[in-house]
Design goal:
heterodimer; A: 5-stranded mixed sheet; 4-stranded antiparallel sheet; globular; B: mainly beta; 7-stranded mixed sheet
Chain lengths: ~110, ~120
């Protein structure tokens, strides 16, 4: 049973900033939040991981409020190649390694 | 770094045969490897978790005698689908955990299994 909730789909246009919010109300004290991207017929690709406040890397930013019950993945200036399914994940069952995938958010970027 | 490979990338077999899929961590030692299955337009479903040198832990509803997992070393895990049937046709994905800090997993490219 997935512990996260995120929108099923989102549409955007090239060059726009996209923010995908995920709720994880039952996140445990030690849990990290991880986001993955998946293209059709490929394995998921790690995007970013965070524990609190803000994390930024070369592809995205992750914003986590103080209560950590939600997180927002921010993709700056998306392009057509960012069209994919994005998964927000928190561990399950007490083990940091157990990741249960929810349905993810299908992002469609239009020209 | 942190590259995971799978072999083969696709396989077609006849019903009743067995198929072995290999998962390798190429540039790191993975304490834990995971096997997922993904049907078309669906999310990944965790099948089992394996640690090197010990028996795999299977998720509820996954037949351990049908999906044999061997984790012989810190860089290799294999999944054998025994007596495959058409309903086993799916996209099988492995991942490996580097085990540092949080729960970061690195995924392989997947193996497309088609059972005729």
């Amino acid at each position: 049973l997935a512990k996260t909730t995120q929108p099923i789909s989102m549409d955007s246009y090239e060059g726009q900033e996209v923010n995908i919010t995920c709720s994880h109300n039952n996140i445990a004290t030690n849990d990290y939040i991880t986001w993955y991207q998946q293209f059709p017929s490929q394995g998921p690709r790690f995007i970013i991981q965070g524990y609190k406040t803000k994390v930024t890397n070369e592809v995205a930013s992750l914003f986590i409020p103080a209560d950590r019950k939600s997180s927002t993945l921010s993709l700056p200036r998306v392009s057509l190649s960012d069209t994919a399914v994005y998964y927000c994940l928190v561990p399950w069952g007490g083990s940091q390694g157990n990741l249960i995938f929810g349905k993810g958010t299908k992002l469609s970027v239009k020209p | 770094g942190a590259v995971v490979s799978q072999h083969p990338s696709w396989v077609i077999c006849k019903s009743g045969t067995s198929v072995k899929i290999e998962c390798r961590s190429l540039d790191f030692q993975a304490t834990t490897m995971f096997w997922y299955r993904q049907f078309p337009k669906q999310s990944l479903m965790l099948m089992a978790t394996s640690n090197e040198g010990s028996k795999a832990t299977y998720e509820q509803g996954v037949e351990k005698d049908k999906f044999l997992i061997n984790h012989a070393s810190l860089t290799l895990s294999t999944l054998t689908v025994t007596s495959a049937h058409p309903e086993d046709s799916s996209f099988y994905i492995c991942s490996a955990s580097v085990g540092r800090g949080g729960n970061e997993q690195f995924f392989g490219p997947g193996t497309r299994l088609t059972v005729l």
